[in-house]
Give the backbone structure.
Amino acid sequence: MSRVRIALGIAALAIIVSGIGGIGVEMATPRVPAVASRPAAFAVLQDALSPVVVVARKPSLAEILDFVLKDRAPQSALTPDGKFAPGSDEARIAAILGKYTSDRSRVNRIATALVREGRRRNIGSSLLVGVLLTENPWLDPRAKSSVGARGLMQVMPFHAGKWGCSSGDLFDIDANICHGVAILADNLRGARTLPAALLGYNGCVHGSNTPECHRYPAIVYRMARKGARAAGDTLVGASPFSSPGGY
């Protein structure tokens, strides 16, 4: 008797479920009600499940750097006490430059410009610090060499206004660093080795610009190492801080 009841119960349940939800064959090919007769809830659900088109695009260099350096503070992010946020590129460079001048405002401005232009031209900040301290260890924006090179990165006047910088004033900190980094980037693109690029920046193409100018790359590397030690950094990798060519 109990078996009969169970069988009848299963049959009744199957009929009820089939009538309510269209279970079985109808489930595999459900009918979609006409738009005019669709319940509002069905329309909302269908709209929510509508296909979405995602357009992919190549990320910019700035976006890639922001992702890679996501743990670094934004450029020019000064804390209330006038210092850069700990861990930022600017803070590291400011710590190095602070060994050469007590002018905090100048240090901050130079650090900001070096990081900005380095990212713009895709040049590492350690190399830029090495060049800067080799050219002008006094960090004097008004410096002028015997051959007429000007400012922090000792840029020759004929370069002024030719590198997409906002100003041609080579005694201005931001403009001078903009020109200097752009010139270095151009030499890096055109030279076969880093020492050759640095010699080109210095103007020591044929070794006749200044006495022993061929030693320029070695001095840049030494200043880069010295700066890294001052900031408590550890330099990793052979290039550009050592060279089998004797620089």
The longest helix spans residues 2-21. Confidence is low (pLDDT under 50) at residues 10-37, 52-56, 60-74, 234-247. Residues 126 and 224 are 6 Å apart (CA to CA).
